[in-house]
Amino acid sequence: MNLLFLFQGVLMRSSTGLGHWLKNSVIMVLPCLLATPVMAEQPSTRLTIEQIYGQQRVRTVMVIGSASVAFLSDSNKLSSLYNSETGDLWLLDHERQLAQQINRKEVQIFADRLAGEVAKFEASIASLPDDERALSMKRFEQLFEPANQRASRQVDEFLPQGRAGEFAGIPCQWHDMVEHQSTGDKLLGVACLAETQLVSQGQVLTSFFSDLVAFSDIVKNADTGPIQFPVMGNLMALPSGPEMMAIKISNSPDLSNRKAEMEVISASTELHSSDQYQIPAGYRQQRFSEPL
């Protein structure tokens, strides 16, 4: 595969389905549920999430069902699909009427392919003089700066502060978010962490977050150079511990002059028909590793 074609594909994803996901810094997920004749409606938990980045304020809705998690955009559009029984995440591109399938296998294929292309690029500039090689690498890294700026920083450790909080009626514990660096630890911000079991269908959230962590770990273990996997943009999935989620995050003012926050502002239990959330009829289904 041509290196430029692959990188253009990454950038194209950043401007369409996957990019919208990055822009909002939250992955938007929707269930593939099978209708059951016994129960036309099933209970679900609805969480409204508000995110602030600079002057931009975005609200999304997460709907957690018995085997699914659903995100709706601020325009109330279904944006993506996740099925906890299969581990499949479907990204919806409404303009193209396209649904792209992501799972651990697809992410591994994508990461291996991307790492291979990065290695080819590095080999192609290896014989250049030092200054030309450094300039080529700098220009290469600049291709991915917009997407990387939207990706979440790597949180290496959550240090408990010993004080409690509560958002949308969900109790949580405040933690410092710390990144380990060679020059010492860096405070990225603070987060209030809650147990997923505190919301109905919490085990489904645990499955969802576990898959997101696995996605980022797969790419982190591959040598993809300056490219970060956009999945890390999901702030609620930042905690690496099992059965935990972030319901309030504030960045450290020392990191950026732009305010960056995420908060679950409301939580409620509702009834939904079991077939309400699914890939729209007529949408083309495609594996994420396949060319667009």
Helices and strands, with pairings:
Elements: H1 3-15, H2 17-23, E1 41-53, E2 56-64, E3 68-72, E4 78-83, E5 88-93, E6 98-102, H3 104-124, H4 130-142, H5 145-150, E7 157-167, E8 170-181, E9 184-195, H6 202-220, E10 244-251, E11 260-273, E12 284-287
Parallel strand pairs: 6-12
Antiparallel strand pairs: 1-2, 1-11, 2-3, 3-4, 4-5, 5-6, 7-8, 8-9, 9-10, 10-11
Q: Give the neighbour order of strands across the main sheet.
A: 7-8-9-10-11-1-2-3-4-5-6-12
The number of distinct helices, counting runs of at least 4 residues, comes to 6
Shape: globular
Order of helices and strands: HHEEEEEEHHHEEEHEEE
Beta-sheet strand percentage? 35-45%
Number of strands: 12
Low-confidence stretches: 1-39
**Terminal Cα span:** 13 Å
Mean of pLDDT: 79
Supply the helix-strand structural class. alpha+beta
Total domains, how many?
Answer: 1
Instruction: Please tell me how large the radius of gyration is.
Output: 20 Å
Main beta-sheet annotation: 12 strands, mixed
Helix amount? 25-40%
